[in-house]
Amino acid sequence: MANEQLAPLPGAREGRDPSRAIKRGPSRVPPEVVAANQRDRLFDALVHTVAQKGYANATVSDICRAAGVTRPAFYALFAGKDDALIATYRHGTDLLLKLMEDAYRAEPEWRDGARSALRVMLQVLAELPAFATMAVVEIDAAGPLARAERAQLLRRFDRFFADAPRASDLPMPEELVETIVGGIYATVYRYVASGRVDELPGLLPTLSYFTLVPFVGREEAALELDDDTPPGRARPEACPITP
Questions:
Q1: What is the pLDDT of residues 69-103, one digit of tens each?
Q2: Which of 7, 144, 134 is CA-nearest to residue 58?
Q3: Cα–Cα separations (whole angstroms), residue 20 to 14, 16, 27, 43, 169
Q4: Which of 55, 107, 162, 224 has the highest count of CB atoms within 10 angstroms of its CB?
């Protein structure tokens, strides 16, 4: 539901966040609660460690140190560094997609929903640069299993195009949505890899145009490039963009 309170994305907090510390010694805290607490701290620690050192240079010891969690506790939760990265990536992208879906479904029209989902994605990544670095760039360094996880994630973006308008007399190429999603991802990757994460929200007009133009036409989609219209007000007419 749109008003559901979501847990913070990995990297939103430090692994050693004092508010999550569990006191040593005899405790009535259930083991499953302790394990969930350690897992969340390791998620955060992994994101920050990988963003700082790069995935290839980050070690399990580095991640445990940043989380304040022992190596035995780490291996009780994950098979190794690759497994921990994939679990962190899956958890974080699930939360991000939920935020995007809530924004998408809150709008009555498809184009407004698509724009809102894009806005949420760009804002979240800009606000969490360590997560953006881990999830967009460093995932490439984690081998074929991680890249397969990323491919599955990109296919999940198809849901944002299910209600897109289609011309009844024209076939819709199966590769169209894949091409749009791939183009958006490539643009975001370029900005994150070059250290320009804070500039991502400024891409909203261009990426909205790129997303909408196959479905609403160039003239309508070009209205997205006018970024000065306050929310809730009609956008002025714009000249169509020609190639």
A1: 999 999 999 999 999 999 999 999 999 999 999 99
A2: 134
A3: 10, 8, 15, 13, 58
A4: 224
